[in-house]
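Rather than argue in generalities, we have chosen a single entry, letters for residues, whole numbers for local backbone shapes, without further comment.
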Amino acid sequence: MKRYILSIDQGTTSSRVVLYDDKFIIKSIQQKELKQFFPKDGWVEHDAEDIWNDVKKLIQLTIKKNKLKSAQIISIGITNQRETTVLWNKLTGKPLNKAIVWQDRRTADYCKKLKLKKKDKMIQKITGLVLDPYFSATKINWILNNVQKKKKILNKNILFGTIDTWLLWKLTEGRSHLTDITNASRTMIYDPKKERWSEELLNLFNIDKSMLPDVKENSYNFGTTKLFGGKIEIGGMAGDQQAATIGQACFNAGQSKSTYGTGCFLLMNIGNKFKISSNKLLTTVAFKINGKKMFCYEGSIFVAGSAIQWLRDNMLFFKDSKETDKIYSQANRYEEVIVVPALTGLGAPHWKPNTRGAIFGLTRNTSQADIIKATLDSISFQTLDLIESMERDAKIKITEIRVDGGMINNKNFLQSLSDVTQVKIIKPENIETTSLGAAYLAGLNSGLINNINEIKRFWKKNKEAKPKTNKIVMQKRINNWKKTIKNLISLNN
């Protein structure tokens, strides 16, 4: 009887279920796009019930299409969009409010007030995170103040979770209220050194500890689901960027990966010591497996693939994102258009939630192709900003980056990335590294694989891009980018 690992990859714009065989080769991918809600400027929401229903249907579809029995599924791994916040009534199982997405900026003013009270240094010292609306803590506080008080639901009947916890609770029919250490480390109320929820931060944000899930390692028996026939164990869980780090086998200090999906996330493994960034990066847990915990520096670009979606859906520049590779080649190389896609503010290393997107350098000759090229190049320039901050913090020169995510199927973008950063960019054979990382974690817990050294042997290179562009020409463009960002920030803040 053939046996499989089921990986739930719940992202910002879609939910996917990926079926892996016992050699971690993909056998099936089922996907459903997720509706986004933008009720006000800077607000981004998801319907948590929709997320659950989509995931449930995708699992059922995977089982049906592949004619599986539940006994053939060794284990389930879960990976998820991080920081997105759900509070629900544990008596009814219904969310109090729509899920507040990681991109949401509604708590920017609250964060500003906390900064004026000098709380940002204390928060970074405990959590390794920069005080920003990005993280879960201020989102929880907003729901408690704006929804719970109106509905008058008692604290003891409310549960909090990021999307991993919400899906686990639904899969186990309320038996497991757990999260993993990587997702916990993104909430801004968790102390990753002491591995516990911080009483000091819970008091600061007025959050009752009874709402919070218990925190476990990434590979762990999180419970079982009985919704798809017999019992199926859930054996692995990690936030999407940490799952991709595991899928890319970045287990050694200095190794880096960058994911280009809805946003862009560059992570560098910094070893087993917690080190605060001096260059506005995040320090977060990379993973904890078999008692071994590793940390990483992370730089987050809030808008990457979603800028391409915006060009497609709002600007109607093309019908399919795949077209951008060909269109990029049609751009006029003498045009000096700069696009700053700060559609939901600027992330690292600027942390300016109120900065808005802009296009500079338009001429009578500017075409759609020029704007598309400039948008793709902007992701490369923002990646360079992160690399420079990371190298200053880690005192390590980054010579290569392992990349994944939907955007890396664009060959011109990969070359742009290498030219701008002057770094070797490596694309793996399996670019589904996020779901793969979750599958590895489930495989570790079930005994299908024994240790991370086996994962290292699974990783294989597919393609690489090396710098081709003249350094002098590129430096001029880099200087223009930095000057433009500086001017835009001063204009918006």
Notes: The longest strand covers residues 292-301. The mean pLDDT is 93. The two ends are 61 Å apart (CA to CA).
